[in-house]
Amino acid sequence: MVRPPSARSAVPGVGRLGLLEPTAADSLRELAWDNVESIPVLWALSRAPDADLALNTMVKLREQLGTEWAALDSAVRTDTSLRGRLFALLGASSAFADHLVADPSSWLVLKRRDLPDRDELIADLLAVVKAVPEEGPHAGPMLFRAQIAGPEAVALLRRRYRDQLMLLAALDLAATVENEPVLPYQLVGRHLTDLADAALTAALSVAVARVCKDGPCQVRLAVVAMGKCGARELNYVSDVDVVFVAEPADPTATRLAAEMMSVGSQAFFDVDAALRPEGKAGALVRTLESHLAYYRRWARTWEFQALLKNRPMTGDLELGQRYRDALMPMVWAASERPDFVPDVQAMRRRVEDLVPEDLRERELKLGHGSLRDVEFAVQLLQLVHGRVDETLHVQGTVEALTALAAGGYVGRDDAANLTASYEFLRLLEHRLQLQRLKRTHTLPPADDEEGMRWLARAAHVRPDGRQDAVGVLAAEIRRNAVRVRRLHAKLFYRPLLESVAKLDSDALRLSPDAAIRQLAALGYTSPEHALGHLKALTGGVSRKGRIQALLLPTLLEWLGDTPNPDAGLLAYRRVSEGLDDQIWFLRELRDEGAIAQRLMIVLGSSEYLPDLLINAPDTIRMYADGPSGPLLLSPKQEDVSRGILTAAARYEDPWRAVAAARSLRRHELARVASADLLGMLDVPQVCRALSSVWVAVLEASLAAVIRAVEAETGEPAPADFAVIGMGRLGGLELGYGSDADVLFVCDPRPGFDETKAVKWSNSVADRVQKLLGAPSTDPPLHVDAGLRPEGRNGALVRTLAAYTAYYQQWAQPWEVQALLRAHQVAGDQELGVRFLHVIDKVRYPAGGVSAEAVREIRRIKARVDAERLPRGADPATHTKLGRGGLADIEWTVQLMQLRHAHEIPALHNTSTLESLDVIEQTKLLDASDVALLRDAWLTATKARNALVLVRGKPADQLPAPGRLLSAVARVAGWPNDDGSEFLDNYMRVTRRGKRVVERVFGG
């Protein structure tokens, strides 16, 4: 109860009222609200989202109203309902506060306790411009002609529209101050849509008066609402998307549509016709037949998704209904289009990419766990199942969720929870937009406590006894975002799993046909097989089957966003079955989200990795994040190499020693390839890691063979033995599909016959090749000695003296060039270094290479280009031998080494990339040319590695545009799955590199 007037001390202090401004007490005295009789007013004021803003606005209103202030003051003191609407509005919206101050008499609008219906709104806005029904042959019930059509019409309409919007906002907000009923979210959206319909009806009446001045309009014009307006779920501040249909679509119709958009955009909100055929580049107005012709022949999948919400709005409603009736069958058939899945996924990624990374957690519309997640999922399920189920032919998101639950396409509880989260997020969006009547979807930063406090009060969020309103709001935002993300996965996949494993006795189950439709829409090209994999994974009553059923909704969502979900699901089944006896596997997937997501990306992107992971399962544990970053990046390369050598050294039997080395190699290949595919390693890091593993395996195998031979003969080795790496192995630039090019060199030890030493060395080299080349499920270990003197016709192993003699007398230019990449990799280190000293005089000749040798090298390169490119290969996209590919860049660098290494010691380098750095530093080429060569080499290497990861076998030719190329693009790190863009970039980069090659190598 209110205390008697004499108890003046009962008036609360300004701080308790939530008033923070120093002038608040003076303002209360100015309004005569500093007495006991004003206590109900003060307590209502204290509940306003921003009490200071509300109070300051009331002071301004008193000044503006003058003698009329008494009426407002009396209404505020006596009418609890009005007081709640007014203070809530003024405390929540500075824009409406300014509107009231500019037109103080409009406070009378707020006396109304209910909302006008659609017909009343239309009549009210038409009355502003004194519109009368249009006459003539094309007149209809929604076509009017304004009698006030000059510039003043826009100002009159803006003011009246703002009054109607203000009334809705006040009724919507009133519950934050007084115990007024809360307006349901759907009611607010529908009323905003009715108001938009009325607004554009009035705008069209002005357009009719301006365009058709000489008589009745001779065209039929239908205005069709799209997007949120079409679905009757508008925000307070939204673009209104429209499409125009006219008969005929002549200049008059175009002028009429353009004028209506102009008036509407000036007076009410942005009117956007960009969803029309061909977008902003297309005709503003089309006939119905023109619309149909476009959608039959040219429309993309996303355009049919947009049409899902079309609704005749104003103008010629009969023509608008014919438009809808003709197009909706195409909409419901869209899921059968061959490009349906990639188009939908590409659109989803493009939308996500619009949001900067640092705003994604604050973005209500497009961020993680956002409104768009709900809307996108619901629309996709409607398109998939609406073809055969007419109960899904609804437009609103909440209505669609209800229909999907009723049809058994989503769980009832999931639909209810998702609806609750959707409405909560839409409420926050509405409150943010009301603050300044600006289109925004971004929450205040976490450190903006005042902004969050205002939002909490505006959204009617109260303290819960444990934390204040800001804490409660932050917790609710997190909870709902997490719930949306979780349910987004369940929405698609939980019903699928219910169809193969009974998880809930009360749940409706998708029919087999519906399950197959849903899997097809989620990107599975063989949905029947996918359904079989799901049955196998969740079959039986075992605990593992139940865990799989709980994991799979999220796993399948991640798989669905990979280039090849079918192969990924099969690979996941194989991995799961291969690790059936490993209790840690499912536990890690359940408890470590990073492991599960990264595993799905890997399995759905690569045919190279699944077998490696099955045989080296501990690699999966390394998908987790450690204290200093991903565990995939934690091993040091020298530790890996040492581990391979140590493991192999434990065995006397060379087969077992090589098996141990292979095992660790398998694990390391799985680690490197996983890190590469997940974008954690760059090209040079991948090449160095792969090369060092090859070197360690060679070293371990050679040591094991020598130990075995010595044990078999009972004699020490008669020769020192070294393995010289050639080609990419010598440059430590191996790719996934590279062989190990080597030379074998021996040197008889004192006291041993040279013939015996050479025979022994050939036996060792042959056994090493056979051991490493033995059949295996692992990626092959092919040791190629084809670069030896005289090629494959020459001796497999030569002595150091024989090599010296040969290179001094018989070395051909191509052999000299090949020696540029020779480097000691295994065996006797001292012998390897002596070999390098011998060939230094050959590969770095004093005075540089001769002109004749240069001509010969160019001739050989031309022959290679003409003869070695495989039949049918495209030279523009062959990563090794094609235009601007690896061979072009490497031959160019090697020619420069032959010419200049005798005077630039830093060019005594086997690495292409490091040699390019030296060429740039010594200004042998312009930095821009070096950059083009480097970019071409890196691009070609990345593409070549991606080809192997995707296809699971060595390949050099980029595929034609299609699913395979898109997968290669994704694995190669291209920012989207548009394979054509990736290919265009590849060809552009290599073409520029080729220009430098032609100038530098070709002279």
TrEMBL record:
This is Bifunctional glutamine synthetase adenylyltransferase/adenylyl-removing enzyme. GO terms for molecular function: [glutamate-ammonia-ligase] adenylyltransferase activity; [glutamine synthetase]-adenylyl-L-tyrosine phosphorylase activity. Keywords: ATP-binding, Magnesium, Multifunctional enzyme, Nucleotide-binding, Nucleotidyltransferase, Transferase. Pfam families: GlnD_UR_UTase, GlnE. Belongs to the GlnE family. Its EC number is 2.7.7.89, 2.7.7.42. NCBIfam families: PRK14109.1.
